[in-house]
Amino acid sequence: MNSVLFLILRRLRRPLILIIVSFAISVIGLSLMPGVDDAGKPWQMSIFEAFYVISYTATTIGFGEVPYPFSQAQRLWMTFSIYFTVIPWVYAIGRIITLLQDPGLRLAMVTERFTNSVRSLQEPFYILCSYGESASLLAKALDEKDIRVVVIESQQDRINELELGNSHNIIPNLCADAKLPENLVRAGVHHPLCCGVVTLTDNDEVNLAVAVAVKLMNPSLPVLARAERDDIAANMASFGTDHIINPYTLFGDQLAMRVHALGTYILHEWLTDTPGDKLPPPEYPPLGRWVICGYGRFGKSVVKNLEREHISTTIIEAAPELTGCDNCIIGSGTEAKTLLEADINNAVGIVAGTDNDINNLSIVMTAFELNPKLFVVIRKNKHHNHALFKQFNADITMQPTDIIAHECLAHMISPLLAQFLELVRNQTNTWANQLISQLVSVVGESVPETWAVTINQKNAPAVTELLNNGTSVSLENLTQDPLNREQRLSLVPLMLSRNNQPLLVPDTSTKLMAGDCILFCGRPSAKSALPTLLNNTKILTYMIDGVEIPNSIVWMWFKNIKTAKKIKSVQSKF
Amino acid sequence: MNLEKVIFGFFIVLAMTLNFGFFIGDIDNSTHHHVYELYAAIIVSLIATVLKFGDRTHVGAILLSTSLAADLQLIAAAILWAALSGKMDESSLTVYIVSLSGGALMANFVSVILLISETIGQRR
Fold first, then answer.
1. What's the domain count of chain B?
2. Using CA atoms, how far apart are residues A264 and A252, in angstroms rounded to an integer?
3. Superfamily of domain A448-574
4. Cα–Cα nearest to B63, from B14, B2, B110, B7
5. CATH superfamily, with its number, for domain A122-245
């Protein structure tokens, strides 16, 4: 801000001096001119009166000749001073306006405002480097969960979209190149409350540049980067990027999960969705032969995963030399001829995975005409074709931006959640289905809140105090409703992490120890009720044994006397 | 010969000298303090302040601050004079006006001393 102020002051020097000089000469001249008062006696204006008259002359206001009508000499001088003062005045006003419109100045002011709003953030926040489709979905989801976000985006129209959208919290944003380290610093890379940097642009080189810059400037800050090319992903991993997200491999994994472990897939989606959405309906991809159209990164990932599940595939690819496909039918799949060559009538499923939405829609429409019982998986590239895809209503629509956003959310909501989901993948489908039914019965069908609680002095003082006194606190006590200890809050403990050893879906009779981290899943009402139990010793004690502790010293003294009397009377009986 | 430095030094010294000229004389005798000299002191002080704008060095910042202090007191003296000139007795009004201008004089002294020290500090 200082440099902006100095710039303004420097540029204003000449106009200001011109105004001062023109005023000075006009005022002294007017006060020296001989005038006549109303009685006809000679009179001269005082300096202050002259200053007053010239002020309203220079600013073109023009009240009139005060206090007495002017003599010829005074009017002569006034004529001269009108031209002499108005011109510098108008010049100065013009200069000030041009100065304020200077693009360099405005950029400096906007950047300054951004830096200040980032510096004054009091809550933990994430930095998003780009505001493309996946980043905007992520920002919206984080905003719903009340996690703060700071955005740097190089295209002004995306920033405009961000500013026009509704958000619960203010999202500081800057139109600048995220690769430049100074912009990252302005966005808060060194800020103590920054929780991480997320870079999801569709250009791998940019993501790489941002990841390198952040890791150099603040090595302990988590970085989530999108990388679609394997060499760039390996490059990122080599200097310690925390999470590298490849939407194609993720989708391939998810498709495999859907085939052999639908429960696991549903659990994964449900926990990382935006709060308020409903549970996705189960769709079982059939076993049999599938036709895959398009052998790019997406197609390769799908083929790899399906063949791992022992599903045979036929590949249709328009340019096999480019994609390295050995054994496939050449064609784009949009014409019926190619599909018939791939024996579409005997296939159970079709995957339309090219990078052109219209081609994908055309492929599945043609295929559907030939074989209406096909299970359709379609790749959706751009969000603006959403209406078409919704109309078609394929069995599975894969949108890279959705997948990326969900994966990021899994890591950002709580590191425990990411760990939990990873462990869930290794469980059986039956286990996942059981967990889902348990969750739905407690939490309901809408997407729940997920949050983590650490049992230490800062986050759970009441529990720590009781543990230090030797009282045992079990997980069950944390699920009781503070308003009525017989009832249970709508939450479920998903995972207990003790000394970095995770325990999935712990039994509620588990005793808590200091240093435990618990991952909860539940309704927002439960999330806001839980801190009462964690912070308030009185309430927690009541939950455990149902006995009320008195509040004030006086009552406690009374109670002690009563208890002492009781003990005495019991003792005297013996 | 740097014309810009000549003008800069000229206005700073002129501001101080005009201010001194107004200040000197019996503090309660209004015939010793002429209104046009106060007027000239104000004008030149304002010009000197504007010339000091935009200098990012430490010395530049202090020069600007002393100028602003002087301007403030001179303008206060002028306002007092214009507002109270018929209403209270001449000699006590003169005392007020001249004491304010004395304060402005001290600020101008500091400004000139800084100018001198900056000039001596340069070996050219």
1. 1
2. 15
3. Regulator of K+ conductance, C-terminal domain (3.30.70.1450)
4. B110
5. NAD(P)-binding Rossmann-like Domain (3.40.50.720)
> What's the rounded Cα separation, in Å, for the pair A233 and A149?
25
Instruction: Name the DSSP class of B51.
Output: H
Can you tell me the distance from the alpha carbon of A157 to that of B43, in angstroms, rounded to the nearest whole number?
50
B47–chain A Cβ distance below 8 A for any pair: yes
How many percent of chain A have pLDDT more than 70?
96
Q: What CATH number has the domain spanning A2-101?
A: 1.10.287
Tokens read off for A572? 């005297």
pTM exceeds 0.90, yes or no: no
DSSP state of A281: P
| Interatomic CA distance for residues A138 and A176, integer angstroms | 20
Smallest CA–CA distance, residue A46 to chain B, in Å, is 9
Minimal-distance CA residue of chain B relative to A4: B54
Q: Which residues of A touch B (CB under 8 A)?
A: 6-7, 9-13, 16-17, 20-21, 24, 27-28, 46-48
CA-closest candidate to residue A301, choices A377, A232, A262, A250: A250
* Maximum separation of any 2 CA atoms in chain B, in Å: 55
Write the residue in A7, A11, A20 that is nearest to B47 by C-beta: A20
Nearest to B45 by CA among B21, B18, B80: B18
- Is B7 an 8 Å CB contact of chain A? no
- Which residue type sits at A567? I
Alpha helix segments (H runs only) across A371-460: 386-392, 400-413, 415-425, 429-443
Each domain of chain A, given as residue ranges in start order, spans 2-101, 122-245, 258-412, 448-574
Which residues on adjacent β-strands are paired with residue A175? A153
Q: Which residues in chain A touch residue B35, judged by CB atoms under 8 angstroms apart?
A: 46-47
Q: Which residues of A touch B50 (CB under 8 A)?
A: 12-13, 16-17, 20
Contact B35 A47 (CB under 8 A): yes
Chain segment A281-332, per-residue pLDDT in tens: 666 777 888 888 888 778 888 888 888 777 888 888 887 776 666 677 777 7
| Fold entry, domain A258-412 | Rossmann fold (3.40.50)
- The C-alpha atoms of residue A134 and residue A6 are separated, in whole angstroms, by 41
Can you list the alpha helix ranges (DSSP code H) found in B33-89?
35-51, 58-84
Q: Is the CA virtual torsion A98, A100, A102, A103 positive or negative?
A: negative
Residue B110's domain comprises 3-121
Assess contact for B20 and B105: CB atoms under 8 A: yes
Strands (E), A227-281: 243-245
- Give me the total of CB pairs closer than 8 Å, taking one residue from chain A and one from chain B: 40
State the smallest CA–CA distance between residue B53 and chain A in angstroms. 6
Residues 6+ apart with CB under 8 A from A469: none
Same fold for the pair A122-245 and A258-412: yes
Assess: ipTM above 0.85.
Answer: no
Contacts of A11 in chain B (CB under 8 A): 54
User: What number of CA atoms fall less than 13 Å from residue A326's CA on the CB side?
Assistant: 0
Q: What is the CA radius of gyration of chain B?
A: 16
Nearest CA in chain B to A17: B47
Can you point out the beta strands (E) in A212-302?
A: 223-226, 243-245, 289-293
pLDDT digit string, tens, across residues A189-248: 999 999 899 999 888 899 999 999 999 998 899 999 998 888 888 898 898 888 888 888
DSSP, collapsed to helix, strand or coil, labels residue B52 as coil
Q: What is the DSSP letter of A132?
A: S
B58 touching A (Cβ < 8 Å): no
**A500 exposure class (CB count in 10 Å sphere: 0-12, 13-18, 19+):** exposed
